[in-house]
Write a structure and sequence with these properties.
This protein is an alpha/beta fold and about 400 residues long. The chain has helices at about 45-50, 85-90, 110-120, 135-145, 160-170, 180-195, 205-215, 215-225, 240-255, 275-280, 305-315, 325-340, 345-360, 380-385, 400-405; strands spanning about 5, 15, 30-35, 80, 95-100, 125-130, 150-155, 175-180, 200, 230-235, 265-270, 320-325, 370-375. The strands form three sheets. It has a six-stranded mixed β-sheet with strand order 4-5-13-10-11-12, sandwiched between helices. Helix 4 (about 135-145) packs parallel to helix 5, helix 8 (about 215-225) packs across helix 9 and helix 12 packs across helix 13 (about 345-360). The longest helix has 15 residues, at about 240-255. The protein binds ligand F0G.
Length: about 400
Amino acid sequence: MEHYYQCINCSSRYDTSEMIYACPRCEDLLEIRFDYEPSASQIDTKLWRSRSFSVWRYRELIPIESTTSIVTLGEGGTGLHRSQKLADDLGLGRLSIKFEGENPTGSFKDRGMTVGVSKAVEMQAKIVACASTGNTSASLSAYAARAGLRCIVLVPEGKVALGKLSQTIAHGATILEIEGNFDEALRSVIELTKRNPSIALLNSINSFRLEGQKTLAFEVCDQLDFTSPDILIVPVGNAGNISAIWKGFDELRRLQVIEKAPRMIGIQAEGAAPIASAYKGKSIHIQPVERPETIATAIRIGAPASWKKALRAVNDSGGLMETVSDKEILQAQKDLARREGLFVEPASASSIAGLRKLLEREAVEGDEEVVCVATGHGLKDPEVAARIGEAPVKTICDIKSIERTLGLR
Ligand code: F0G
């Protein structure tokens, strides 16, 4: 379908034959817009269903021109797990977890990278770069390896979970550990790609990445027989994902594939919650958090790049923003692992922690259908995982001692 960049502030339009990451006129965020008539006849859901369940099932709504440049590892197609025990514990009728840990590198970032890296290849880039709290770098380095591109990542020193760093090392990226946090790393990589335009920037201010991430909304509707849940809850860090997911629901609604879209609820960690603070204070601007801190290192971000899009998603959908403490995050991580068999990383558990809080204060009703997004796999952060369970018990390898230790004799 015909598409172009549009500035979310001044509505200027630009051709997508050039890679740009901000509006050349007013420097605000860009998004991809399609030239379609809002009518269901534009989309053939039967054709979608005839394809494999993955990001590319929805290719009519993905702005990649040439199928030969597609770089894929089989991303998307993740489970929507009905979680009745957790729902019962929380006093909720219907709860499902969209488990993005099932993606090839273990997080939702792969949805964005298959599209973003494909576009970079289409534009004949040879080098790709990003700043990251870990998952973006793990994902980009894998897709860069697959496409034969050089990959440069900037990460905050000592604040990237072990699993994510291991992946990035394994895939052969050049890793720069910077003294500073994610926000500083992002500023530097933006400057690096400005000064060296041949390096493609793959953070979520790259609109093509969000075009991949919006397929999470398509999949949730597809899994619910082309209906939408009442509420979708997602952890928020740099705020690309909530913006992308809302764009996906909004497009399906405009195309009359679904009748209504869900309320979008974004959850931030208490120590890194500029968007939730702006929402609660009814402000239309965020106040960046200078020293963001949370155990959920994935969302340890004080100056989210896509905050404006996130507030728009929340307000346009009739949703809200909430914060959760590290303690609540760890409890939710444990509940998901013990009650539902889903091992997610701390940031991912914040959506469930947030749901609990919102049910308590009756901002979510017990009869609403809720989907929580669990954004990344628990193996990403093995060190934190050890804190939510008991350490292994040492025993000598003798049947009597084993039985005694187990309390069987
Ligand atoms: N959950 C996980 C597991 C993440 O890795 C991230 C972001 C988020 C949630 C928040 O998504 O930034 O789109 O609002 N991780 C980025 C990274 C920042 O570098 O891996 P967001």
